[in-house]
Amino acid sequence: MDLAESTVNNHINPPWLWRLIATGLSFLLFGVGGLILRLVVFPLQSLLPGDALRQRLRARKTVNRMFWLFVQFMYRSGVLTYQVEGVERLGRPGQLIIANHPSLIDVVVLIALIRDANCVVKQSLWDNPFTRGPIRAAQYISNNGSAEMLDEAAGALQQGQTLIIFPEGTRTTPGQAPQFHRGAAAIALRGAQLVTPVVISVTPTTLTKAEPWYRIPSRRFHFHLRVGDDIDPQTFADRGSLPIASRQLNDHLHRHYIKELAIDEPTAA
């Protein structure tokens, strides 16, 4: 079954104990999979012919496929259902994908949807033994807050890569509106051909910043990803200096997410 398809079946809810076990198995599978990629798969791939670009493409395709299988495991084991709208508009050259960050698996689902995507990830993941292999092999960008990070992200977009970024920098606190840092808007103005907002909602909330993995909800959760209309960053770049344009674009994105997440609220209630 393609991840891009909607998979909604709220009539079947596996028992709580089974979902707890399946959630634990999901985390175990993710960790072991990351180690296998780091210690076995990517070293073997490095022996294959091809330049640095070819190696990067292989690594990203591998991560994309492994994340797809991981989401399928969570779905088929009864941990979650999911719905994706507008996936065909993801993965275009020079596209900056902006997403809110309600749960731990947001980046996993997005990368599973896009075969060759770059991503700005937390610095701590670069040093994590379970995640650093895929992150470094795929040449994702470390969010260390430096000016060099902004240059690297803008440069990736200028090269025609698709870039995923979470402007909050960390997972949203449940019950609070997302707060975007201005760095994503600055990157968009410096390198993006287009900006595409992606609204993510998780119902009931789970795998948030405030919750351990074993505190699972009373029913399997539903992951809903909705791709919004494209934004031309040039319309903001023409309004003045980079700091002014960044603030206006950031404010525009913030208002968009407040509005779209409010639409999802009745469903989440």
Question: Can you characterise this structure?
Answer:
- It is a single chain.
- The chain has a single domain, classed as Glycerol-3-phosphate (1)-acyltransferase, CATH 3.40.1130.
- The protein is α/β, with parallel strands linked by helices.
- The model has no long low-confidence stretch (mean pLDDT 91).
- It has nine helices and seven strands, in the order ααββαβααβαβαββαα.
- The chain crosses the membrane at residues 20-44, 65-84.
- This is Acyltransferase.
- One of its GO terms (molecular function) is 1-acylglycerol-3-phosphate O-acyltransferase activity.
- Pathway: Lipid metabolism.
Q: What is the makeup of the main sheet?
A: 7 strands, mixed
Write down the overall mean pLDDT.
91
Shape: globular
Q: Label the structural class.
A: alpha/beta
Give the radius of gyration.
18 Å
* Helicity, as a percent range: 40-55%
Low-confidence stretches: none
The top level CATH class name: Alpha Beta
Number of alpha- plus pi-helical segments: 9
As for the number of domains, it is 1
Give the number of DSSP strands: 7
Main sheet: which strands, in order across? 1-7-6-2-5-3-4
Written as H for each helix and E for each strand, in order along the chain, the element string is HHEEHEHHEHEHEEHH
CATH topology: Glycerol-3-phosphate (1)-acyltransferase
Proportion of beta-strand residues? 15-25%
Which CATH-level-2 architecture? Answer: 3-Layer(aba) Sandwich
Distance between the termini: 29 Å
